[in-house]
Amino acid sequence: MDAPSLKNLTDFKYSVPAKEQSFILQQLGAPHVSSFNYMVNKGLNDAVSSLHPVEFTLPSGERLSLRIEDVSLNYPAVPLGVVGVRTQQIFPTECRQRNATYCGKLNGKVSWSINNGPRSYIDQDFGNIPIMIKSNRCNLNEMTPKQLVTHKEHEQEWGGYFIIRGHEKLIRMLLMTRRNYPIAIKRGGWKGRGDLFSDVGIQIRCVNDSQTCVPNTLHFVTDGTVKFMFAHLKLVYYVPVMMILKATCDYTDQYIYKRLTEGFEDDSYYSDCIQNMMRNLHAEGLHSHADCKGYLGKMFRVKFTECAEWFTDVEITDYVLKSCVLIHLNSPEDKFNLLVFMIQKLFVYAQDNCKTEGADAVMMQELLLGGHLYLQVLKERLQMWLIYLRASILKNAKSGAGFACGEKDMARALKYTGGVETVMQKFLATGNINSPSGLGLMQDSGLAIIAENINRMRYMSHFRAVHRGAFFQEMRTTEARQLLPDAWGFICPVHTPDGAPCGLLNHLTMNCIVTTNPDEEIVATIPATLTELGMVPFKGSHAGLCIKECYVTQLDGRVIGYVHRSIADKLVTKLRCLKIKGEEVPNTLEIVLVPMKDTPGQYPGLFLFSGPARMMRPVYNLVFKEIEFIGTFEQVYLNVCVTPKEMYKGVTTHMEVDKNSFLSNLALLIPMPDCNQSPRNMYQCQMGKQTMGTPCLNWASQGSSKLYRIQTPGSPLFRPVHYDKVGLDEFPMGTNAIVAVVSYTGYDMEDAMIINKSSYERGFCHGSVYKSEFIELDDQNSYFCRDPSAPDLAEALEPDGFPHIGKPVSAGDPLYCYYSVDESKYIVKRFKEKETYYVSSVRKCSSFVARAKPAVLITFRITRNPTVGDKFASRAGQKGICSQKWPYEDLPFTETGLVPDIVFNPHGFPSRMTIAMMIELMAGKSAALHGLVHDASPFKFDEDNTAIDYFGRLLEAGGYNYFGTETMYSGIDGREMTVQIFFGIVHYQRLRHMVSDKWQVRSTGATDILTRQPVGGRKRGGGVRFGEMERDSLISHGTSFLLQDRLLHCSDRTTALICTSCGTLLGPMHMVTQVADKPNMSETKEMCRLCGHGESITEIQIPYIFKYFVTQLASVNINIKIHCTQT
Question: What is the 3-state secondary structure (H, E, C) of 914-932?
Fold first, then answer.
């Protein structure tokens, strides 16, 4: 599609679903869906097989071992025994309307053995866990657009989210450190981890096949030693790295020293440090492989309580090495080889012979996908479930019934163990996790969000959003927020919010893909393929090979061989050719050759990555004339040009597929963003997501709590090609408005705009808000019904007790009626909202429970005509409010009799420099004249072929002024204006920020118990916000005394006693004394406890919050002295 057109609107098959779904739109949910599919197909069984068996001793002395096996996830289906259903399948639309969770049953087998004897098995239902929409366990999977519409879904439904209690929930994609690659990092906080610790280290985030993550760090200690850090159950441990090396493999000290110093024979400092670490180990009495394993097992036995009490020290060490040390490698030899590499890199880095890599660069990052996080949470809960089962068995065994280890006894124990259903649903409902291990994350909240469907742009952006993490939002440094050059083509430079999340919440570019798990058989052949290309495979001995002149070759964090620097470039070129073909190596393989340099640079090596969750994008390979996918780390060492003009022969290796490929989906919808000031493009990305639009087409089957809808949308006449590619005409979001750029009324200052009152009356930007309320009765025996003894209810309610469809309801009107069995009477619930609503639909909701509580879903429609104070914006980031609806007859008009819909203040252009809006004004005008749709894609025009000249000539051809200006006449007296007025068509957006939702007024009301100040919140009848700007406005108006009314009299005024002598609020108190000559009488006097004076005490009015503040300071022994003067 090379140019936009109106064929989508003029085609007679416009309403007929397409035969196939759009590839571009399906890519929005692809990373989420593919990760969940991996979990179902392979990850779940990998996770279950890697669970540590729970082993313990029964009171009878027998050793019992528990495992979980053969776990499978089923499609969402009606429970067995439910009658009266048409199909056993459950579809998402039902769950949205019933406030239910779209989930499938998780089944498996629990196996146990006694004293390592034969295993027994019993089937177990672990409960219903949420299913991702459009995954291979969803009933919508592989449906055609026509079938999706039949099941009340959108024809372009891309899935990737969950439905939890009727709400669409999405697991947020988080930016994580690249897996299985040792990164050189410098952090000042590391110095506080122990004596002599330095700020340099090598960090690696290890991820195994079941997506379990365990970070490891090599710390350089300033005495020349190295500590190996790993974490277990959120506790951090530091072990001398030489002890880990010797415990990993049974190698001699001579061999270990030789391996560590290979290629570094000339570095005497490094050699001395290695010898010193070895001597330290012998000084501790640890001379052999067995000594080190025995010592580690003895030390960690207390901490690793999941190991059975009969485990030997060696077995505990094996468990520690397997579960906490470089867990992505299964072979001890591979762990040893990678540790050697990390130690060598650490000493090179500590001596400033290589540069810091850091974890904030995109080249060192990948994504944590929803399916992978879901799998980690599920795996951990299954491990906890086994522990709960052990507790249940021990409880039964210690009771009088005993435990005979038979099937009946196991079934009885399983009955009280529960499942994982509640935990998984709570995780997605709240986004919080309660993990004993932390799952390698830096946050335990905000992991799942609601996929808000305010409009199509907002909904699309959720699925391409990547967040750096909540931890970085609290940091004062800006390193994590910076847009670095290596993010080109992967992270959109435009689409990030302003404010607190700026730079932390980013969005993937349109062409960026997220890799999936490759074919394991192909990955397994990569080492053999490299050997054929010239790599020397690693076999422990390299006689005759000069390691110093070779690159260490790694595949997914495993050392597989060496490549001599003389053939490295040729080998990489040949490997890249095989990658493009995708036969012998995956086409998503990331090939990174970090070259050796005379000056310190990144630590050299040949690194290959084939794992999932990496960001890659397509570029054109100039050598092989084919499309190739490159990764973030790979791109840094390639030479990529944008256009053929930038190509340098023999230097440039790749070229961009599209010059707009560095922008995200939303940034590509901005008309001509290259002509705007950059912040305005950022604003439009945010305001586009706040626009009242058409969020959905299945209005009758929607159950969302709140939806915005614009009733009179229009298709923009000036739009990018991407607008048609994503089919935005089906979900329109704005209105074409005739705009006059003139300061005419005085009400259009400071971004305010004037709306033609007649345009407003004809439906300009008329919108509606749809709210749905789910009502469930408390008792299952109660039922909805209109009270037959109240004939006056017939006007408001149907016989079934529900309101009439289309009827307006106001505060105090009957909303529904039901018969309460507990109270034995009819109860009428009345409408409480202050605004008038219209009943749009009433839907009774059922449940699969035999005796379910009656429930109903009522959807209301609230009309929202534009009012003074409502917010509007153009697509160039020019936002403003409607300040006045001006009469049609008083507005200026052109020679042809046209009257503008909007009057825009010309002072909005110079400082904002939104040239794209000025071009749109001319382009929209010429498009309407000639019946065209103009292309607003970025970089379409340049200095030689300007947009203004192109559209100016079109205006001239239509008989209008070249510059888009027109002669206008005053609507007041008809005189011709002495200046030419810029006049044309602009596509305007009405934002969801409306006065009707935010207006607030209060004189008295609820106050906070502690501070005695008005509570906040419009729904609670709270106080109006009064800040610095409001204070300044009252002072500037000469009404500063009103501040006392707002901030004292109408807030938290209170009286207090103060001692003017010592200036304290804490000392004065009422002293009750007996009258001397009258024993039966007493008198009360004020007395200051601090200075002893009574005559200097007086009563003052102060805010109660100040009194509270003084008492809080007094609690930490701080007194406040107030200087008082008599007036």
Answer: CHHHHHHHHHHHHHHHHCC
381-396 pLDDT, tens digit each: 999 999 999 999 888 8
From start to end of 148-210, where are the E strands?
162-164, 167-171, 173-177, 183-186, 197-207
User: For the chain, what are the domain ranges?
Assistant: 23-176+369-507, 177-363, 519-656, 667-766+868-990, 767-864, 1052-1114
Average pLDDT of the residues of the chain: 92
Cα 997 to chain centroid distance, Å, stands at 27
pLDDT for res 410: 87
**DSSP designation for 39:** I
Instruction: Round the CA-based radius of gyration of the chain to a whole number and report it.
Output: 36
Q: Strand 465-467 relative to strand 173-177: parallel, antiparallel, unpaired?
A: parallel
Question: Does pLDDT of 539 surpass 90?
Answer: no
Cα–Cα distances in Å, from 782 out to 153, 279, 362? 33, 81, 59
- CATH number of 519-656, picked from 3.30.1490.20, 2.60.120.200, 3.30.420.10, 3.90.1070.20: 3.90.1070.20
Both tokens of 448, joined, read 């799942």
- Distance CA(741)–CA(305), nearest Å, equals 74
Whether pTM > 0.85 for this model: the answer is yes
pLDDT tens per residue, range 361-383 = 999 999 999 999 999 999 999 99
In one letter, which amino acid is 686?
A: Q
Three-state DSSP state, 638: coil
For 862-915, the pLDDT digits (tens) are 999 999 999 999 999 999 999 999 999 999 999 999 999 999 999 989 988 999
**Whether 338 contacts 331, CB under 8 Å:** no
Q: Which fold has domain 667-766+868-990?
A: 2.40.270
Going by the DSSP 8-state scheme, the letter that residue 517 receives in this structure is P
One of 2.40.50.150, 3.40.50.300, 1.10.3210.10, 2.40.10.10 is the CATH number of 767-864, namely 2.40.50.150
Neighbours of 450 (CB within 10 A): 15
CATH architecture of 177-363: Alpha-Beta Complex (3.90)
Q: Does domain 23-176+369-507 have CATH number 3.40.50.740?
A: no
**How far is residue 1034's CA from residue 1027's CA, in Å, rounded to a whole number?**
11
Least Cα distance to 158 among 285, 291, 34 occurs for 34
Adjacent-strand bridge partners of 843: 857
